[in-house]
Amino acid sequence: MDWEGGGMVGSWNNEPGVCGSECGRLVVTMTQGGGGRTFRAGRELVFGFALTNWGTTVAPSTPSVSLTDGSGIAITSQLMDGAVLGPVLDASFALAGMQADTRVHGDYANITISFRANAPLVSLGSPGVVITVSGLTDFETSSGVVSLNGPDAFAVSKGATAVWNQMLGELVLSGATLYGGCDSVAIPSDCALPEGAGNTPSTRFMERRATSVFSFVLKRPATLASLPILPQLSASSAAILLSAKQTVTGSAADTAGRSVAALGVRKVAQSSATQGSFNVLTVSLSINAHLYPSTEITLSGLFGPQTDSTASLPLTSVTAGVFEATAVWNQTFGTLTVKTQSLVAADQEIVFSFEITNPPSEQPPAAVTAKVTSFGPRQNGQLVPKTGALSTEWTPLEMGGGSIGIGILGAEQPPEFAHREIGESTQVDYAINTLTVTLAANVPLQLQGNITLSAIVSATPSGDIPLYNTHASFFRGESGTWKREDGTLKLTLVRTVHPSDPPLVVSFRLQNPKCTSAPCTAPSVSVELQGGAKAPSIGVDPAPMFGSVLGGGASLSWVLRMVRESVSMVNVHNTLTFRFAPNAPIYPGSVLTFMGILGTQSHTCVSCTGRGDLVPGLG
Fold it and tell me: What is the pTM of this model?
């Protein structure tokens, strides 16, 4: 050991039959290396070294210390404060626990062992410290070398491997190097030393103890072959034998398993209950066993959809990296099969979604069931030898939160425009009228689909007319095709609008007719939807819109006409403010004439510069 240029070299003599009177003697020489630094008076020196305690209980020893140097200065031998090398405890495990991530028969269980010894386990030779986990009965994994995992896999066994004996139900780890001991501050009861003989808390300086954790994988039997027991943990080496096997804490079911593969979370939700509409089904599942790559999840009972059978139905939303991109859909049998492409932990919730087209008419809701079949781990795409399938029973799925409708694939809602309103800006005869349409359907408004407004009466000549407002860009050319002869306006979509999207709002301008006789009656405009690129059969039959437009009958008049002044005091500047609004548009070239502005000294308009009481912009 070396501090600040000075050092220490120790010589130990304790060989039986040779050491004689020198037995138990340690000579430490202060070296001259690094410049021969001298340790100042009062400086505390600390060093340590490892010895092996007696194998039986003996009386503790109290060492003495003396000092001599070449100048003749000496400190005579004096007993030290403290007693050591009087072992009173048997080496044992202060903690031993076990936990398995799945208890399902036929599954591969990842078994985690955690332990802590009250003494160091140090391998000084071969095989060194041997740790044995026994009592692992009824596992089907064949005897051989198994890999260890976990944070201390390389500390508990050289090479992080162990030897598994299926017949004995034992796992043997060799070459451990683990420093045990107690905490020098808070000494737990399992390694406390008796009081007396100098063993006071202030003198018990020991290493901080740590818990070691490692794990390994074994295959459970297909059925429970015997009553489950808890494994035992033991350790031994040439230098130390832990006094007895330590039964681990945990559940005996972790050893042999106790359950069959079963679904935990099992939910299905849909995005639409409308006849003939697109419908996104979202499935949420968890299983109490591992799902290995190529595990098959099959849904059944999906009868009625109009989607044709395909071996590559896209999955639209999945748990990241878990599933293959497409599923196998069988319209005839009402089944959908998806496959995993990565390992899924036991009890992990996984989600996938897919889109189908609802039945064309109402039907009883589907009774959807699911089955999971896991084929075990694979190597190079092939099943590992002696591995079989692990399957759940067919299990009914529950309606998930947020699902639309009273049941899956019931299609109880006819397609319609749930929101269909039309409004106008003026009722003046012959005026150009801005009409605003607001639409929302319970089916998708598809790309290349047509929305047709009918029963419109207007003097505007036929042709394409511009569209305005929020969603004008949703339609081809931001315009609509107007036919005066049959009173229709056709709007062609250039994108898909889903039922969950905000309502469409679009405006256009047509000329009001002349109302020839009172009372003037506005026509009832209807709206309908025809198909689209993806599903031409989806449509909404004509339905009257809410709101009356293009009836005319009003004379051109003022909706608002108001004048206000800023002051009524004599001989001061006065600002007049005019507010007015007609019930029809004002176009360029219109002339406004205001009469009766009397009682003023002003004869002509004054160019206002902002000086004095004049206001810029007002003459």
Answer: 0.64
